[in-house]
Amino acid sequence: MSLDGTYDDGNIFAKILRGDMPAARVFEDDHVFAFMDAFPQARGHVLVIPKHSRARNLLDEEPERLATLMQGVQRVTRAVRAALSPDGIVVTQFNGAPAGQTVYHLHVHVIPRWEGVALGRHGAGMADPEELKALAAQIAAQIS
Ligand code: AMP
Known about the structure:
By secondary structure, this protein is of the alpha+beta class. It is built from 3 helices and 5 strands; from the N terminus they run αβββαββα.
């Protein structure tokens, strides 16, 4: 998928937002929805997405929506830190398949990192849904 294209209402994150697919929810407000990545690159890998958006990537998004998205990202990142005490946290976002994008609803990755622990492969093994739910609750408890 290139940088240009039409928003597909059947994408996985649109289904999650409609409640047609399950997700381990971490946080939600009027603007954003945050949930555990099902194929985490590290323990506590969270995705933050705009709720009322048909942007496939950063380039598509209304500038005003980026402010509320990043406010949500910061809240989640702070909660991940408080819940899991990582040594560092990667906040990243991919645009187009050559950049690593696989789901075409704008999203931001929040990935905790620990000294000496290698980053897992992007989109590798699926996590245990029960473990994800427990992590989601742990992080959600630290949202302020
Ligand atoms: P990207 O490659 O930046 O488009 O990121 C998409 C992310 O969505 C990847 O990290 C996948 O592991 C994750 N993912 C794919 N399907 C699901 C799902 N059903 N629930 C949660 N995360 C998912």
